[in-house]
Write a structure and sequence with these properties.
alpha/beta, Rossmann fold, 2 domains, about 15% strand, globular
Length: about 260
Amino acid sequence: MDLGITGKRALVLASSRGLGLGIATALAAEGANVLLVGRSGDKLAENCKAINALGKGKADWVWGDLGEENFVESMVAAVKEKLGGIDILVNNTGGPTPGTTEDMSVDKLDTFFQSMVLRVIALTNALLPQMKAQGWGRVLTVASSGVIEPIANLALSNTLRGALAGWNKTLATEVAGSGITANMILPGRIHTDRIEELDGAAAKRTGKSVEEIREASVKTIPAGRLGTAKEFGAAGAFLCSEQAGYITGTMLRVDGGAARSL
């Protein structure tokens, strides 16, 4: 299927590795020109080299840290300089530290709110006028399956990504008439560095081995395995496609059937 996004311009946050890189690679494979964002220039440059070697969409990169106060302004400037405009915005952020609700100090909550919620919303607001002016746009926000089924010991993530879910649904209704869609994509257990970090933390907390933690988690997934960044990226690319123009305000689970809710 041709997703109809050849030549579209996409900004993909937190795309030096993992889920963000998976979506950026999938978009470029469909002919989109992607601007990767992250804190590791070496990784970003390497990713762009690999994407450009495919000979389809072009890839470039810019250093960016969602924790920095000037993040939004720097991204708006980068979009203008390197892409010349915006068609697709992929809001992706790193995950917060594990912990219970009692571990959520005011300072910690504020720090992660700034990088995971406030700047995501502010950047989207800054880029929406361009999408409205051209009558076409895609806003895709990466969250977590914890939005629909809170995950134990990830209280911060459950809380902050839940806030984004309410924002996304509201945004979708407001911009649908302008040819813009706003969707969320919810990863379950996708095999990335983040999963390695969480499994390592769980092993340390419980006294079990990482292998035991991994085996137990896989047993809860009907598909019987972890997902891949490539599979996740393909699902994200579809939500950014021309064909997905009548899909908005939704939350797509990519979790191998793990979530038990309807």
